[in-house]
């Protein structure tokens, strides 16, 4: 006789409890495993529970920006500068690429469309009234932030909150680039006095604040974009000052012109920076004859996995096609990929950088190839490119003309910084150089705010991280 045991109330509860805990434990472990592992193939169930999070959401930004690049095709704005009196000035890559001191008219003439983002941020801020001192001080700095000021054409650091060396390096590189742009200004006294807070974190911790950031999503209207620290330099194997890498890419092109490039799509990156998104790329390329897509494991110098060896930014130029995928937010690798005379194949981007307005996905000015965020159309896009080599070559040439030889130059970077300063000034307050500090005997003493950038960079590591707290 089958004994039909009905579980008692407490047994049932315990059973539910235990299986509930087990399920939650399983889900959490799967997610942790899925987001951290570098294992190239994941069990189906782990793939399913991987959170899409910010890495594979529906929202993406497609740039409809005919206004930007197209105006570059019209007869260039004729700059009437005092230096070239009587002659019209036209940007010449070989001569002007590293000229950080183009004047405003030259900047406008050379880089149409580059200042869209500064203008957008300014117009948005205008709608909210002026940025006040309080807007910059009524919140605690979160990690990666630097509160700074430009006064009489000099950069001053007011406060920092940096948590580690990467944070510190990014902040110093950003300040250095800004300092270079204002030092080189043809008319330095015309640089307005401003006060601002910048952040070098990938993700905006406070997206509703008027902060200077490296990138933003379409909805982060309050943020102002600055060029990323990589234009100054980045301290990683095979990287360095941006113009140095550009020069190497040009050198490489001499020995390895278009026709000798591998007809393959290359990608190297870390999967756990954006597991779902990047795994889709790896999966979409798996087993394809045109694929040289592999993940990089920095720790593993042997790179046992086939196709997974480290490739420097210039080594990627040996391929006709270079895939691009965002990371935790934007990926700073895009600008290096755009230094090659190769076709950049990117998913629809969600994170905007200051120069992304110049990306053109269709038409005769096409300068990259755009695919879906899940890379479902990667295979057909690659088939099309391989079947139409003249089209691929045209896109690669356009990319060089637009990016390497124009909008990614140091000249463009410096022009953008100064345009950002000017746009910010139009909607923000006039800062004060002095503040009153307690003197101990009820008297207040006037003291200069902050410290000059030139002095700040001499401070030791610990002092730079949380300044001025650590100074006391
Ligand atoms: C260019 O500048 C010179 C000297 O400042 C001036 O005489 C001339 O009229 C200007 N030309 C144009 C086309 O604006
Ligand atoms: C500045 O602060 C005021 C008052 O809190 C607020 O109304 C305004 O929107 C802020 N401005 C910006 C640009 O965030």
TrEMBL record:
Domain Glycosyl transferase CAP10: 190-427
DNA repair as UniProt keyword: no
Keyword Transmembrane helix listed: yes
Lineage: superkingdom: Eukaryota
InterPro entries xrefs: CAP10, O-Glucosyltr/Glycosyltrsf_90
Keywords on record: Membrane, Transmembrane, Transmembrane helix
Membrane spanning residue stretches: 12-33
A Pfam family: Glyco_transf_90
Name by which UniProt lists this protein: Glycosyl transferase CAP10 domain-containing protein
Lineage of producing organism: Eukaryota, Fungi, Dikarya, Ascomycota, Pezizomycotina
């Amino acid at each position: 006789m089958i004994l039909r045991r009905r579980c008692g109330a407490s047994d049932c509860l315990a059973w539910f409890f235990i299986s509930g805990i087990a399920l939650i434990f399983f889900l959490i472990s799967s997610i942790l495993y899925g987001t951290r592992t570098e294992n190239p193939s994941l069990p189906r169930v782990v793939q399913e529970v991987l959170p899409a999070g910010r890495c594979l959401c529906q929202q993406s930004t497609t740039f409809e920006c005919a206004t930007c690049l197209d105006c570059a095709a019209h007869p260039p704005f004729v700059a009437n500068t005092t230096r070239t009196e009587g002659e019209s000035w036209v940007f010449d890559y070989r001569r002007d690429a590293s000229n950080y001191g183009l004047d405003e008219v030259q900047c406008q003439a050379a880089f149409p469309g580059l200042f869209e983002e500064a203008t957008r941020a300014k117009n948005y801020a205008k709608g909210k009234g002026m940025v006040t001192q309080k807007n910059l001080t009524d919140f605690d700095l979160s990690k990666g932030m630097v509160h700074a000021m430009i006064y009489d054409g000099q950069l001053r650091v007011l406060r920092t909150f940096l948590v580690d060396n990467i944070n510190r390096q990014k902040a110093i590189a950003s300040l250095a680039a800004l300092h270079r742009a204002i030092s080189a200004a043809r008319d330095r006294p015309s640089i307005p006095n401003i006060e601002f807070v910048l952040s070098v974190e990938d993700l905006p911790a406070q997206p509703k604040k008027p902060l200077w950031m490296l990138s933003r999503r379409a909805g982060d209207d309050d943020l102002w974009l600055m060029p990323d620290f990589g234009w100054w330099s980045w301290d990683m194997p095979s990287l360095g000052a941006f113009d140095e890498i550009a020069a190497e890419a040009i050198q490489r092109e001499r020995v390895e012109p278009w026709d000798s490039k591998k007809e393959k799509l290359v990608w190297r990156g870390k999967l756990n920076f954006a597991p779902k998104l990047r795994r889709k790329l790896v999966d979409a390329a798996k087993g394809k004859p045109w694929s040289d897509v592999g993940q990089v494991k920095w720790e593993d110098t042997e790179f046992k996995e086939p196709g997974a060896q480290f490739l420097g930014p210039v080594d990627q130029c040996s391929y006709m096609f270079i895939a691009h995928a965002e990371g935790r937010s934007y990926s700073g690798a895009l600008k290096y990929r755009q230094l090659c005379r190769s076709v950049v194949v990117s998913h629809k981007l969600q994170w905007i950088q200051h120069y992304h307005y110049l990306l053109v996905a269709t038409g005769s000015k096409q300068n990259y190839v755009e695919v879906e965020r899940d890379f479902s159309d990667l295979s057909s896009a690659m088939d099309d490119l391989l079947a139409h080599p003249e089209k691929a070559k045209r896109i690669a040439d356009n990319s060089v003309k637009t990016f390497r030889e124009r909008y990614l130059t140091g000249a463009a970077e410096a022009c953008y910084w100064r345009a950002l300063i000017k746009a910010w000034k139009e909607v923000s307050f006039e800062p004060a150089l002095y503040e009153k500090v307690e003197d101990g005997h009820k008297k207040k003493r006037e003291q200069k705010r902050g410290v000059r950038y030139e002095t700040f960079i001499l401070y030791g590591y610990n002092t730079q991280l949380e300044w001025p707290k650590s100074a006391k």
